Hints:
Elements: H1 6-10, E1 21-28, E2 39-44, E3 53-58, E4 64-70, E5 73-81, E6 84-87, E7 100-102, E8 113-114, E9 121-128, E10 140-144, E11 151-154, E12 160-166, E13 169-176, E14 180-181, E15 185-189, E16 194-200, E17 202-213, E18 222-226, E19 234-238, E20 245-251, E21 256-259, E22 265-272, E23 275-276, E24 289-295
Amino acid sequence: MYLFISAFLTMVSAVPQLYEGFVTGQISNRDGTPAVRVRVMAMDATSTTAPSFVSLTETDLNGRYRLDRLAPGRYFLVAGLVNAPTYYPGVANILEAQTVPVTRDGGLPALNFKMATLLQAHVRGHVTVSPDDAGSQPIDVVLLRPGQDPLRTALANDGSFEFPEVPPGNYNAAVRAVNRTTSQVPISVHDQDVTGVELVLSRSIQLQGRVVVDGGGTPPNFRFKMEPGAFGLVSGPIRPNAQGAFDLNLPENLRFELYAFPPAYLLKSMTYGQTDLMREPLTAGGTELVVTFSRKP
Length: 297
C-alpha cells in the first residue's frame, strides 16, 4: 500500500450539499497491467487555496475504482503517490490535467487512464568483489534514503543484485559486509527502471590514530578525504579527544589527505607505521596513524 502525506488525508472538505455524484473507471500501469491497490482521490478543481480532497478510494485487483459522495462540481482525479502523482487523463503535470464535471445523477462514462509514472521500479546492478571475499561472508546491498529504513537485498553469486519494488525518490546505493567498505553511489528512481549500478567492495582498515602538536597544545579538529576512482570522494571529520586519539575505518590502497584544520596550524607529517601518507597511499600493516602539526610563527 502506498503512503500519502498525512496532512493531505486530513484535508477532506465538508461540502454542505447533497452527495449524489460519483466517478468510476479503471487505472492501468504503463505496461497495460492493472494498477492494483493504488489510491485515487477527487480534488476540488475550484479551490484557490490548499488542495481540497473530497473523496478517497483504492483500486481493486483489476485496477477499478469508484469515488462516491461527490457534490456537483468540477474535480481533478489524482492517483498514485503524493510525490509522484498521476492526474486524469494520465499526465504527471496538473497543468496538463483535465477536470471532470460531476452532476447529481452521475452520468459520466467510465474514466479509464494509465499511470504517468512508475509506482515502483526495479534497481539492478553489480558489485565487484575480490576473490578473497567471494563466498566468504554474507554481502548485502542497501538503498539508503534520509529518514527512512534502508531497502536491503542479498548479493547473488555472480555479483549481481536487484531491488524489485523501489518507490520513486533519490537514494544512495552501498554494500554492507563485515570489515569491508564501498562507495555510496547516488541513484534517482523516477519514471523507469534503473540498471547498470556499479559498486566496488574493498577491504577496510581499522585505524587507531593520534594527533601530536609540536610544543604541546590542544589537538585540533580537521577533515580527511580520499579520492579513489571507483569510490568517488570519501571524506569526513576527525575529532581527536583531549589526548589526541581518534579512530577511523577506511578503504585501503587509497591516497589519504587532510584539510580544513585551523589556520594557526601547519601539517608537518602524517605516517602510518613506516608509510609516509603525504607521499604514499594507505595500505594495511601499520600500527598507528600519527598526524603531527606545528604552530605557525
